[in-house]
Write a structure and sequence with these properties.
With about 450 residues, this protein is α/β, with parallel strands linked by helices. The protein has a domain at about 5-60. It contains 15 helices and 13 strands. The strands form four sheets. Strands 5, 6, 7, 8, 11, 12 and 13 form a seven-stranded mixed β-sheet that branches. The chain has a two-stranded parallel sheet with strand order 1-2. The two termini are about 40 Å apart.
Length: about 450
């Protein structure tokens, strides 16, 4: 059945790439000139009639062209580059296979050597990369790992991240949305110390921990090379963010306090190797927190959560329904203040829920008047009345009343990491269903993939 997709200027390449990823090359498009949010209704109608209608008619009436043979990707074992290290670097940059930083060339020998110690079947398909439509295989994970400078022992961590990417709940297809949110990987379990991930000073700084840095770089290269998130394809970030290194929790501090790690909130208890991921928009440092009791430091932390939450509140209602889950990273000093007073993590979440609040009029403007992302621009009282938000959002019509920035206390995610001798915290706003919190276990056992595929034994099924 003939179709035409309407796209705004600047999104033509993304639309074509999405069509190709869904198995439909040469997707018929009709272009809307300018940005729809920056035009008056009358101007938009005039432009639509003058420039777009003819393209719609042509798209609906022109025959669909069959894709040309031989235009797909090279096969996994094809040699696509040769020469000196400088030649390889220039070619990879020219073809957008690299982020521009130095890479280790992913020769066949290096990739095979990267996989061999863990016993994985190189050709096992983990899932499909949306929206490129490519298979995610152990081999493709390893190719980008070699490029990033990862160690073979890190492969199980990378495979767990790949499991997150293929999970529809995470929504990897949104990784190139215009706000430019970037993935944050939170790591838990014995893998942190056994593989040398940094959870102390500089926990979120490039280079402060080599594994933290190269694993995060692997993700950016993998999104580029397998999922097609480049400027010419699916990445439509208006500004973009620098990549975020892996955030490894200080599990010794957590155990001392008696709290559970981040992964526990998503089904993986203390002692389990796990990766937990979400896409984050803005970040805000909460520096030099002063106080020796929970009551003294809570207002400062709650203020940070409220300040970092802006247009993202459309993920409370609008673009998402109760999806907004900001992350608060506490230094061990601050976490111990709560622990010394006998506060559980749940106690902290409930206290932050009560204090991290903004005026109702501001909330309504952020989800409606100051953006065009929430249909109807209804008040919180109206939304509470029909059950779209919890009733506490609509307890009165006073525009100055304070309302929460999340729908429930457990929507505030709390991690512990960083310099153990500094009273700082960091808070990140969350991109909702455009990168929902998703957690997967890390399996570091020796794989029986190849044995099973060769012998086909019942015991392996």
């Amino acid at each position: 059945m003939p179709t035409v997709s309407l796209v705004c200027e600047g999104f033509e390449r993304q639309a074509a790439a999405t069509g190709r990823g869904l198995g439909f090359d040469d997707l018929p498009l009709a272009l809307l000139q300018g940005h729809v949010d920056a035009q008056s209704y009358d101007d938009m109608v005039v432009s639509f009639l003058a420039h777009t209608v003819d393209q719609i008619v042509a798209g609906l009436t022109s025959p669909i062209r069959e894709p040309e043979e031989g235009t797909g990707d090279p096969s996994a074992l094809d040699v696509v580059a040769s020469g000196t290290i400088d030649d390889i670097h220039r070619l990879f940059v020219m073809n957008a296979w690299s982020d521009g930083l130095a890479i280790i060339p992913p020769t066949r020998e290096r990739v095979e050597g990267f996989i061999a110690p863990s016993g994985h079947d190189p050709w096992r398909v983990i899932g499909t990369a949306r929206p490129s439509g490519r298979d995610i295989t152990v081999w493709s994970v390893a190719v980008n790992a070699v490029m990033a400078g990862c160690e073979p022992a890190q492969l199980p961590v990378l495979l767990a991240i790949a499991d997150v990417l293929v999970d529809p709940h995470y929504g990897v297809e949104h990784s190139g949305n215009t706000t430019g949110a970037d993935a944050l990987i939170v790591l838990n379990g014995p893998v942190i110390t056994e593989l040398g991930f940094n959870h102390g000073p500089g926990a979120m700084r490039d280079g402060a921990g080599a594994p933290n840095t190269v694993v995060a770089r692997w993700l950016r290269l993998f999104l580029r090379n397998v999922c097609d998130f480049t400027a010419d394809e699916h990445d439509k970030a208006t500004f973009g963010n620098s990549s975020r290194v892996v955030l490894a929790e200080d599990e010794a501090a957590i155990a001392e306090i008696g709290w559970a790690p981040v992964a526990d909130e998503f089904g993986h208890p203390m002692g389990t190797d796990a990766v937990t991921m979400a896409r984050m928009n803005s970040g805000l440092i909460i520096g030099s927190v002063f106080g020796s009791t929970p009551e003294q430091i809570l207002p400062y932390l709650a203020d940070g959560i409220a300040r970092v939450s802006g247009w993202d509140l459309t993920h409370v209602y609008g673009l998402g329904q109760g999806h907004f889950r900001p992350l608060l990273v506490l230094s061990p000093v601050l976490a111990r203040i709560f622990g010394k007073a006998g506060w559980s993590k749940r106690d902290v979440q409930e206290a932050l829920f009560l204090q991290a609040r903004i005026p109702a009029w501001r909330f309504e403007k952020l989800i409606g008047e100051w953006s065009n992302l929430t249909a109807g621009r209804r008040t919180l009282v109206d939304l509470a009345a029909d059950g779209s938000v919890p009733t506490l959002f609509g307890e009165s019509a006073d525009p100055d009343r304070l309302v929460p920035v999340v729908t429930a206390p457990d929507k505030i995610v709390i991690a512990v990491a960083g310099d153990p001798n500094r009273t700082n915290a960091y808070v990140l706003s969350h991109d909702g269903p455009h990168g929902d919190w998703t957690s997967k276990p890390i399996d570091r056992s020796y794989s029986t993939d190849l044995v099973c595929s060769i012998d086909n034994r019942d015991a392996c099924s």
